[in-house]
């Protein structure tokens, strides 16, 4: 319900002419800015690593991140920030991508880490969340 047409009262008419001024009212309700949000998953990583620090990007993963950074830079958009997980693979992916977007602020957060936030219902026998 954020489309301009949904924000205009179509029954309202100009008091003097009795005509609807739909075009001018639609122009008034149009968005004044555009926000682009890109969701990018980390690149391919070593799945055999026992701990997070061992789950680093593979050669293919580094190439994927490089190509992603190149593509984002080619869009010609102004990027304000990159928010990424604190996991090793996400941090590495961000570092590679950010080389193509100089000056863009990088923010690391544990809120984006993979994991099981709540126990599944109904319970499953294989659910064993990590301590983090």
- Mind describing the biggest β-sheet? 2 strands, parallel
Helix-and-strand structural type: alpha+beta
Which runs of at least 5 residues are low in confidence (pLDDT < 50)? none
Q: What level of helicity do the residues show?
A: 25-40%
Distance between the termini: 39 Å
**Helix and strand pattern:** HHEHE
- Gyration radius, in Å: 23 Å
Name the shape in a single word.
flat
Count of DSSP strands: 2
Strand content: 5-15%
* Strand adjacency order, main sheet: 1-2
Q: How confident overall, as mean pLDDT?
A: 84
Number of helices: 3
Keyphrases for this structure?
single chain, 132 residues, alpha+beta, 3 helices, 27% helix, 8% strand
Question: Can you walk through the features of this model?
Answer:
By secondary structure, the protein is of the alpha+beta class. Among the domains are: 1-33, no CATH class; 52-109, no CATH class. It is 27% helix and 8% strand. It is built from 3 helices and 2 strands. Strands 1-2 form a two-stranded parallel ribbon. The radius of gyration is 23 Å and the shape is flat. The relative contact order is 0.12. This is Serine/threonine-protein phosphatase PGAM5, mitochondrial. It comes from Turnix velox (Little buttonquail). Residues 113-132 are annotated as: Disordered. It is an enzyme of class 3 (hydrolase).
Give a quick precis of the structure:
With 132 residues, the chain is an alpha+beta fold. It has three helices and two strands, in the order H-H-E-H-E.
Sequence-ordered SSE layout with sheet pairings:
Blueprint: H1 22-29, H2 59-74, E1 81-85, H3 88-98, E2 105-109
Helix pairs in contact: 2-3
């Amino acid at each position: 319900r954020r489309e301009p047409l949904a924000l205009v009262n179509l029954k309202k008419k100009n008091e003097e002419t009795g005509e609807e001024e739909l075009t001018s009212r639609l122009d008034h309700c149009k968005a004044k800015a555009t926000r682009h949000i890109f969701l990018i998953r980390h690149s391919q990583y070593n799945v055999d690593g026992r701990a997070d620090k061992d789950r680093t990007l593979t050669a293919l993963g580094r190439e994927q991140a490089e190509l992603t950074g190149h593509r984002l830079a080619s869009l010609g958009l102004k990027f304000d920030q990159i928010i990424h997980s604190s996991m090793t693979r996400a941090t590495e992916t961000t570092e590679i991508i950010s080389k193509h977007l100089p000056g863009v602020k990088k923010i690391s957060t544990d809120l984006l880490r993979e994991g099981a936030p709540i126990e599944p219902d109904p319970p499953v026998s294989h659910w064993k969340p990590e301590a983090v």
